[in-house]
Fold this sequence. Notes:
The chain is an alpha/beta fold and about 350 residues long. Helices cover about 30% and strands about 25% of the residues.
Amino acid sequence: MRRKLLYSCILVFLCVxxxxxxxxxxxxxxxxxxxxxxxxxxIEQLSEKETAIxxxxxxxxxxxxxxFITDVHWGDNQRHSPELIHHIITHTPIEDVVFGGxxxxxxxxxxxxxxxxxxxxxxxxxxxxxxxxYLFGNHDNNSDGHPNETQRHLTEEQVYDNLQKDMGECxxxxxxxxxxxxxxxxxxxxxxxxxxxxxxxxxxxxxxxIKFLTSALGSTPAGWKVVxxxxxxxxxxxxxxRTAYISSYMKTIxxxxxxxxxxxxxxxxxxxxxxxxxxxxxxxxxLCCVGGHCHLDSVLYSNNGIPLILTTTDSNHTLNGEKxxxxxxxxxxxxxxxxxxxxxxxxxxxxxxxxxxxxxxx
Length: 362
């Protein structure tokens, strides 16, 4: 009788333990199940794109990949992109996220309101727990649209503290310029401050950006690949048909990139500043320039064939007089880049509004 009672007690105890364990595991799965935070209308597309991304990465003998999102204009954004990116980095081997600039929505806010947007944006994306890097956009010092109204402008310190500080392992060059390396794929990502160049009154740091660029290129290890990233590579021609074009002041910057790939010497001049550079010993190559600003998907080419890849805005913006419909995948736009060196191709996968694309690596 005692033995039966003992067995019964042990059985009850084990049942309680098992039930509690199952309950805890179920709770853990529910908490960690990020699908519960992603709107249901994205799930099918996410699943299809992540399967395709994984297949390309697994079938490549040498590649580097990252998530790119730009022009979030946080005050006019459905704000699902952090959840979408979390889903992507959870279901793929991708570890790097790059933001292409323009957190601020209008640039007509008070400095306090502008900083509030930067802080809220950083908080949302810092929770992703991955390597995330933030580029400066022409709106992000609250000056675009009124460059002479200096009382609205954020200082460089304010922008740095609320947008770029504590980004992760990178070499920071001041004036919002930085680079980071990926040893496994032998790739250097050079991120440039061109956002403030949109208005001529704000281009005073152009020479500093070129100094940083030539230094970062010159110190790139032999045989490595380079990806240049910046908010602004092109401007828009809003006449029909809508096209992008490279403005004269950006052509001078892109020429430095062309000279690097050509392995030649050159001189960059801007106002009273001059930068001499010598790329004659270079054995590395710039693969592409990635950016936003124009609120459209487009690919242009430099004189020597470097692709300038623009991706559309993540904000719920107006295009051709129509606003992207909320409650559909068209309300956001997140791009996954896979640079497949073994296939000589840049693969772009779009989650949200837009299409996938392939750009050959020349």
